Amino acid sequence: MELQDKRVLLTGASGGIGKEIAKALEAKGAKLLLVARNGNKLEALKNSLEFPHQHEVVAADLSTDEGLEKVKQTCLNLSHKEQRIDVLINNAGSNQFSFLAQRSSPSIELEMRLNLLVPMLLSQSALSWISRPGIILNVGSTFGSIGFPGYTTYCAAKSGLQRFSEALDRELDGSGIRTLYLAPRATDTTLNDRFVNQMNQQLGNKSDSPEVVAGHVVDILEKEQASRWIGWPEKLFARVNQILPGVVSKSIRKQQDIIHHFINQVHGK
Q1: pTM for this predicted structure
Q2: How far is the CA of 63 from the CAs of 97, 151, 229, in angstroms?
Q3: Which domains does the chain have, with CATH numbers?
Q4: Alpha carbons 146 and 143: distance in angstroms, whole number
Q5: Three-state DSSP state, 176
Q6: Which residue of 3, 174, 201, 232 is surrounded by the most CB atoms within 10 Å?
Q7: Which InterPro entries does the annotation name (predicted)?
Q8: What share of the chain has pLDDT > 90, as a percent?
């Protein structure tokens, strides 16, 4: 897709990755509808862009029905004015580095909702207001393909998001709407606290800057590539895990002591 003058709805816009995606899309000539919970942060992001008057913001808590309805009505109003959204990017997400036994039921439900159910509901909503041709891009994670200790809920959600994206893309074949899936590896944002960063460093896990991820977002949209995993060796492990999961389990087993150490650090033990 050529992004010049396309309207792009970006969720999680005020986060580390979201800000860089917004900048990268504007550089391609896109007009943005920026969505996040904090209205002040959204306005600051909009005003930091080169052409703020071309973009709009919607402060909405997507974990609530009210927030989802607010976004839907905004998009329907735009479509009535012949300003349909061309691209929906489901980027909002969260995770918590903990053993499953340490998690509360509400925290599990919230994480599953924001990372899986919200993108599904927004994608369903988009079918009534997105342009044709149009694109839905779901931002997942390498953890959607590799089950990793300490991230059971997040892995489950992102795994579901990958299969949802694949199924919806096939379901909409011939409709003019594509559904794409992008899986970043560890990224240098505030989503990871210092203990997670220290663990990744000790394990030798590589991470990318938000700018790198934003570059992949632009590229996958332009090429309309169905799915993409970012970074070696993570993309290789993702493939191996589908064929020979025991090999990946053996590798992770060697890291267990370090993983457990840092989870306990997070919880003050």
Answers
A1: 0.93
A2: 20, 20, 26
A3: 7-266 (3.40.50.720)
A4: 5
A5: coil
A6: 3
A7: NAD(P)-bd_dom_sf, SDR_fam
A8: 81
